[in-house]
Structures are given as C-alpha cells and as structure tokens.
Design goal:
Layout: E1 7-9, H1 16-23, H2 38-51, E2 55-60, E3 65-70, E4 95-101, H3 109-118, E5 122-128, E6 134-142, E7 152-154, E8 158-159, H4 167-181, E9 193-200, H5 204-220, E10 224-232, H6 244-257, E11 261-264, H7 270-280, E12 283-286, H8 287-298, H9 302-321, H10 327-331, H11 348-379, E13 383-388, H12 394-402, E14 419-425, E15 429-435, H13 445-456, E16 463-469, H14 475-488, E17 496-501, H15 508-518, E18 521-522, H16 532-543, E19 551-552, E20 565-566, H17 572-579
Parallel strand pairs: 1-3, 4-5, 9-10, 9-11, 11-12, 13-15, 13-16, 16-17, 17-18
Antiparallel strand pairs: 2-3, 2-4, 5-6, 6-7, 6-8, 14-15, 19-20
Helix pairs in contact: 5-8, 8-9, 9-11, 9-13
The structure holds guanosine-5'-triphosphate and magnesium ion.
Guanosine-5'-triphosphate binds next to helix 12.
C-alpha cells in the first residue's frame, strides 16, 4: 500500500525539526483493536503543545496512519479523502479521526459535524495538559436510526491510558447495527433509493402536498422513496439551499436509511447541486431533472423522443458552463439514464449543435403536423380536446368515449403524444376528440418549450374537456394549476367543460356537491354508463348553442376567479364548423 506521507492542513510556519517529528508519525502503527496507544497519545500531545496547534491522525482499520493533519489552535480541517470514498450500503468511512484539543474542551459541534458528514468510524479528542501531557480522551460515534432522533453517541471521557475498549469490535458492531436498520432494503433491487427534500418558506400543508406530488413523480420514475425531509426557510443558503446543520441531518438520515440519491423539490443551480453532492457524497437531482427523466422514459414516438432530448439538452447546457469535473454525476439522471451516460465527453459545442439539429428536425415534423391539422380543419369536424392534470383519467375517458385502447396507467405522464379519435354523437354527428399530455404545476421551462407546439394545437379545439380527479386530496389546486396553464396558453376564452372524474371513488353526495359548487359534470371514466350527462352537455355545447352572446360555462365560478366564458356560435370560425354538420 502506497502511503501519502505529507503533512496536511496548516503545516506552514513549523520549524524543520517539528516538521520532521510530525512526519515521523506516519511510521507509527496502532494495534487494530486499540483506539490509540498511550505512547502515541503522548507524542501527539507533546507535539501539539509545542506547536500550539491541534494535530490530527486519520487511522485506518488496520491501525495505519493514513493522514497526518496540522490544524490551528482551535480547529482542524479535514483534507479531501479521495482514497476513502464512501461506497454504497451501510459502511462507515473506514477511518477514525483522533485529534488534540489544546484547551481540554470536549468534542465540539464542528467535530461532530465532521463525524456525521464524513462518516468516520469514530472521532476522538485528546486533551492536552500542561507540559504536553495527554489527558482524557473524548470519543463519539454515529448511531443507527433511533426513536429519539439522536445521530451520535458521546462516550464518557476517560484518561487516555484507560481507554481500553476494543475499537475493532465496536466498529464491527456498529456496521452490523447499521446494516440491520437498513434491512428493509433489498440489495438486488436495482432502483435508486432516494430521500426527498423540500426547503421553502411555504406553509407546512403546502410543503407536505408538494412532497407528496414529488413522491408520485419519483415513483413514476421508478425510484424507491425511503424518506422525506423538509425545512421551512425564509432565506436560502447560497451554496446548500438549506442550512448546513440541516444538510448534516440529511446526510446522516441518508446513511441511516441507506439512501443513494437526494431529490430536491426546489430547483437547484449547478453549483448548489455540486456543493451538496460534494459535501454529502450522494447524488443530487432536482424536480426538473426528475420530470425530464420521466418524460425520457415515457417518450416512445420519434417526435416525443426528439422533444424530450431537446429539453434535456437545453437543460444540460447551462450545467456545462459551470466548471465541473464530475460531469457524470451531473448528467446521470435516475439510474444513470439521461443524455449524460453515453456522452461523458460531450462539450458545450456538441450540445449546441445537437440542440440546433433537434430543433430543425422538430420544425420539419411540426410542418407535417401543420398540414394534417389544416386538412382536419378543412374536414370541418368540431374538435374536442381533453386536458387536465396528469393521471386524472384523460386517456381512460378517451377510451371510454371512443372504445379505444389508448395506453392508461396509474403513473404520471402516461401520455406524451396526442391521440386523436372520432366520436360519433346521435344523428350522425361526428367530432374529433384528442387526448393530450397531462399538465403539472411548474412544468420545467425546457419541457414547456418542447411541448409548446403540441399544446398550441389546443387552439383548434372547439371545446375543452377539463378532466379533474375529484378523488384527489388536492384536486382544487390541480384544477387551478390547469386553468393557469390554459391562460398561459392564451386559451382562457375557449369553451371549457369541467369533468369531475373518478366519482366512483368518493361518496355520491360529495361528488354531486363538488360538481354543483364548481360547475361541472361528475363521471367515472371507467364506467361508460355514467357518460350520459357529459355527452348531453358536450352535444349542447357543440351543436345546440344559443344563437348569440356570451354564455358562462361554469355557473358558479371559483371565488376571486373571473370565470370562464364560452363563445357562442356567433364566433364565425366555430359557426362554420358546426353548421356544416348539423
Ligand atoms: N377509480 C377510478 N380510476 C380511474 C378512473 N379514471 C381513470 N382511472 C385510473 O386512473 C389512472 C390514470 O388514468 P389515465 O387515463 O392514464 O390518466 P391520464 O389523465 O391520461 O394520465 P396521464 O396521461 O399520465 O397524464 C389509471 O390507473 C386509471 O385506471 C375512474 O373514473 N375511476
Ligand atoms: Mg393519458
């Protein structure tokens, strides 16, 4: 084994003979079951007293001294431990830190932070008495998840000569204990094991809702969510977003639970992501990346794949501007997927070229779609578009209405590409009905841009069916998020029918009340027998509208909301389409 034999830390200003004696510490070896020998403690203490600086030793499990560190009078800074990276699983670092304290103080907060963040086997502070005699030794180690929420245990200080516990056995016992608390984890399960993190000033309920949605997203992406953690903050730490303290708790929690990924609910800039990941040695992604990843998994058609890749590349570009050596960590999304994996060598120029080419290819596809769209318009069939938050049952409704087999799944973003079907009303009246990609609040901008063309097709719709999952605890927020997106798409004037779906999952009276309150129609997309009132309302909207004027679609708008108004047949465009098929 090649040892790095140099003084780490604040070696400047030491006298040559001190330097030499400190370097000579590398030749000491400690029996593997001892924390430190009294002889070594004495030398360390003497040298520390003479130089008026803390001295630290990082000792491996074989009792070899791997790093000798010189600190200041009050603290010591741990170097980059490149040779001792943390692996996956319930492992401590394989190094213990024994260092001197010149004022006889017990382990400080900084010491315990190092213990936690660096996952040392043990940490010890050796008291330096007058004339450089060693005094007591203060020891602490991490402990597995406990009901009291403590992260470490501080042992009673004893004079260093009496510190006779079996160090090897203690560390082994600890690792066994950690392995036991992580037992729920199946080592053969290839999924990422994540802790979800939220830091914002939002009220608790909002944070909880947001984390629940993030959990759904993570589940959709195929991530095993082990735990959630949140911090209410009014000011964000520029480097770590959350406070350093909290990050330490997070790091310990990750260790205790055996997590290998943090998913932040807040958008992180590249340097924040790197700082957090460097400090905790755990991969870090944010909600945007998670959604991008889901879209990447979901894209099946050529067009869908192009759009998602374009969004991923656009997302990647600014990440590359920040100087970064660990590109793989930045670009590897869930399970190392994402554009980064096979393109470690990508540089900015290549990404720009790719963005340019993807843009061109999509433009061509869009042109083709434009032609199809015009043809459809010439056919002059009314168009009904199904919109709504993701997973509310849009595709199920399309299937139910048109006896189709569009892909349906209880996961988010099952549908990425629009599907179009023909729906026949009585009296031989046909309409075109389309299913669209689900909406979500705060859709990442790059995805929004990529899907903009698809969403713009909604402008052709004569009627929007806004499907709402009435059984969802946050259906009102979802409804509002969708209506905001419709406004952003400049569709606020489109006739909209609110369709309260999954009525089978709640009490009939509640369903009726909600439909009345918000002005909509309750259905169960799984059961076409519930469709009659919906079909009737659609028919009325499409074919039997009053001759003139503006007609409110929702009888009782939400409080503070202006209400959605439907244009009547007076609208020349709609008039043309509808009249042709009456
Ligand atoms: N109980 C119940 N479940 C429903 C109903 N409608 C849909 N679902 C279920 O809800 C889940 C989502 O349905 P989808 O039709 O894929 O939803 P979507 O809105 O198209 O979702 P995305 O395309 O992912 O945005 C599926 O598991 C459906 O079986 C309903 O009326 N009642
Ligand atoms: Mg769908």
């Amino acid at each position: 084994m090649v040892k790095i034999q140099k003084i780490f830390g604040e070696g400047l200003g030491l006298k040559p003979h001190q330097n030499k004696r400190i370097l000579a510490l590398y030749h000491r070896r400690i029996p593997p079951d001892r924390v430190i020998t009294p002889e070594l403690a004495r030398t360390l203490s003497e040298l520390s007293w003479e130089t008026k600086r803390q001295l630290g030793l990082l000792i491996d499990r074989g009792g070899n001294i791997r790093y000798v560190i010189v600190g200041g009078p009050l603290g010591i800074w741990i170097p980059d431990l490149a040779d001792f990276r943390l692996g996956k699983g319930p492992r401590l670092r394989g190094l213990r830190l024994i260092h001197t304290h010149l004022r006889g103080e017990p382990l400080t907060h900084d010491d315990l932070t190092d213990l936690a963040l660096l996952r040392f086997d043990l940490i010890g502070a050796l008291e330096v008495l007058d004339a450089g005699m060693p005094g007591k030794i203060f020891l602490a180690h991490l402990i597995p998840l406990s009901p009291k929420g403590e992260n470490w245990r501080c042992l009673d200080p004893v004079p260093v000569g009496q510190a006779d516990m079996n160090c090897r056995e203690l560390i082994q016992a600890l690792e066994n204990e950690f392995a036991r608390t992580q037992k729920g984890i199946d080592a053969r399960d290839p999924r990422d094991r994540a802790i979800l993190v939220h830091a914002s000033s939002a009220p608790r309920g909002v944070i909880e809702d947001s984390l629940n949605e993030l959990a759904d997203l993570a589940d959709t992406a195929g991530v095993n969510v082990l735990d959630k953690m949140s911090q209410r903050r009014h000011q964000f730490h520029p480097r770590f977003l959350m406070g350093r303290e909290k990050l330490m708790d997070l790091s310990i929690l990750a260790f205790q639970r055996g997590a290998d990924l943090f998913i932040f609910d807040q958008e992180l800039n590249p340097s924040q992501r790197r700082s957090i990941s460097d400090l905790t040695e755990i991969r870090v992604i944010d909600r945007t990346q998670l959604i991008l990843d889901i879209f990447a998994q979901r894209a099946h058609t050529r067009e869908g794949k192009l759009k998602v890749e374009l969004a991923q590349m656009k997302y990647l570009l600014p990440q590359l501007t920040a100087r970064d050596s660990g590109l793989s960590r930045l670009t590897g999304g869930i399970g190392g997927r994402g554009p980064g994996e096979t393109k470690l060598e990508i540089d900015r120029r290549k990404v720009r070229d790719r963005i340019h080419r993807l843009g061109k290819e999509l433009e061509n596809l869009n042109r083709g779609r434009e032609v199809r769209r015009q043809r459809r318009n010439e056919n002059a069939l009314p168009i009904v578009s199904i919109v709504g938050y993701t997973n509310v049952g849009k595709s199920t409704l399309l299937n139910g209405l048109t006896h189709s087999q569009v892909y349906v799944e209880n996961k988010l973003f099952a549908t990425l590409d629009p599907t179009t079907r023909r729906l026949r009303f009585p009296r031989e009246r046909d309409v075109i009905i389309t299913d669209t990609v689900g909406f979500i609040r705060d859709l990442p901008k790059d995805l929004w841009d990529a899907f903009r063309a698809t969403l713009d097709e909604l402008k052709d719709a004569d009627l929007l069916l806004h499907v709402i999952d009435i059984s969802h605890p946050r259906f009102e927020e979802q409804m509002q998020a969708v209506e905001k997106i419709l406004t952003d798409l400049d569709l606020q004037k489109k006739p909209v029918l609110r369709v309260f779906n999954k009525a089978d999952r709640i009490e009939p009276e509640t369903a009726a009340r909600v439909s009345r309150t918000f002005g909509g129609i309750g259905i169960s997309a799984l059961n076409p027998q519930t469709f009659s009132p919906l079909l009737q309302a659609m028919e009325e909207r499409l074919f039997l509208k009053p001759a003139y004027g503006l007609e409110p679609i929702h009888p009782a708008p939400l409080e503070g909301e202006e209400g959605l108004w439907a244009e009547s047949e007076e609208s020349p465009e709609q008039g043309r389409k509808v009249v042709a098929h009456l």
